Amino acid sequence: MKPIENMAPFELTAVDKKVLSTREEDFKPHTWEDASQLIAKNHLEHFKRRPGDLMAYISWSRNTTYHHGSLTKYVLKKRLRWPQDKDGNPAFTPADPTPFAHEDDYAILRNDWPYAFTSKDITHLIVWLKTPIEIKEDGDITDESRKLIAEFVNRTFTQRLKAEGEDEGEGKVLWFKNWAKLQSVTGAEHIHVLVKDAPASLLEEWTHRHARSKSAGSSIAGTPTLTPTP
Prior knowledge:
33% of the residues lie in helices and 10% in strands. It is α+β, with helices and mostly antiparallel strands.
């Protein structure tokens, strides 16, 4: 049987490989301060999942790729339910070419496979977009893209936290966009948002607009399960 790291349908980082050889009881999850430092230094490759979660994610990714052709096709069809052509590729036109400019061009969902954090009060969200975010040749985002994302995160998350009485809104929201080489879902544009101590009602508000527009029986709300491949 192949080692679990050889089963991944995406490239594992050095940190992933180290996690796979770490016992669950020896694993150290991220603190909020740790996550903040990794993002500030752009050391995004150091984000990690718990050993058991990473093994489950690799297995799920392999099964999903087997059944749907790719993780991107699965996300578009089952999680976002955005239009696809007969081959499962994106078949939609953004309402506005500028990222985050129109609410129909993005969707906010909880990450089914979040990174590991010490506190359960840290929620890992993903903002999926129909519009591409401009990046540089090295795979990192441009200064203009960074500004667009920061403005969106501020008005959508930080200011809403403040409106709910969280005076330290700026200190309770982090965001990042993985470098191209770090993405496991490469064909669907997205950014990551981490929020700390967000009320359940606010989390519902952020994700509800998308979820309620989908038909009953979709796998929007939870982690999907698939029959293992042979």
